[in-house]
Amino acid sequence: MDSLANYSIEFVKLKLGHNNFDYKISDAFFSLKENSLFQQGSVNVHLNIDRKERLINLDFKVDGIVKSECDVCLDSLDLTVNGAETIVIKISDEPKESDGEIIYLSPNDLSINVYDYIYEIICTCIPMVKTCENNANKVKACNAEMLNFLSASSEENSNIEPQTDPRWDKLKKIKD
Ligand SMILES: [Zn+2]
After folding, report:
1. Domain residue spans in the chain?
2. For a pLDDT cut of 70, what percent of the chain falls above it?
3. Helix (H) or strand (E) segment spanning residue 173
4. Which of 3, 116, 130, 145 is nearest to 67 (CA)?
5. 147 CA from centroid of ligand 1 (Å)
6. Bridge partners of 35?
7. Ligand 1 center to residue 92 CA distance, Å?
8. Most buried of 79, 116, 123, 159, CB within 10 angstroms?
């Protein structure tokens, strides 16, 4: 079972220089996130932490697949997750608000949790509009039956709405 604690890194205990971490993310990873965009997936995460006295570089590489659904026909999709991201931590006596990719920590901070970073990196790998063309294993066509159903029901709605919405009748009266 996955837990947030698995992603907590006590960087103060790391040796100076490079330290490597590997995570195998499965469905349980996504269940830890409230309102997660994904419920299922399988992603390998490689994290290299380069620790210097007051500067820590976190290099993330993600590679795998998450399950989602087509925005057009709602068929299930496998989406490729492949990307890299670097986050820089500065240890500062006067920590500032984090600006983009630099995070400021005070000398009293001992650990950092990388769960949210991994989750966000996975999300940035996913196209804004996901359709059957994005399916990882095999590009497929949208589900034709579903498309017919959706277009039929949207035509139905546009026919019914003006007649059943009482506001339209009121407006008509005002116009007359
Ligand atoms: Zn589709």
Report:
1. 4-141, 143-176
2. 89
3. helix 166-175
4. 130
5. 8
6. none
7. 49
8. 79
- 110 CA → ligand 1 middle, Å: 46
| Spacing, Cα 42 to ligand 1 middle (Å) | 22
93 or 162, higher pLDDT:
93
pTM of the predicted model as reported, rounded to 2 decimal places: 0.82
How far is the centre of ligand 1, averaged over its atoms, from the C-alpha of 127 (Å)?
14
**Single-letter residue type at 111:** S
Distance CA 51, CA 111 (A): 13
User: Where is pLDDT greater, at 30 or 99?
Assistant: 30
Residue 70 alpha carbon to ligand 1 centre in Å: 5
Q: What is the distance between the alpha carbons of residues 120 and 127, in angstroms, rounded to a whole number?
A: 13
Q: How far is the CA of 140 from the centre of ligand 1 (A)?
A: 8
Residue 19 has pLDDT above 70, yes or no: yes
Tokens 């006067």, located at residue: 94
- Residue 168 is predicted with a pLDDT of 57
Distance 67 CA to ligand 1 centre (A): 13
pLDDT of residue 29: 97
Percentage of the chain beyond pLDDT 90 is 70
Q: How far is the CA of 126 from the centre of ligand 1 (A)?
A: 15
- Mean pLDDT in residue range 52-69: 96
Query: Going by C-beta distance under 8 Å and a sequence separation of 6 or more, which residues neighbour residue 123?
Result: 37
Q: Tell me the CA–centroid distance for residue 34 and ligand 1, in Å.
A: 26
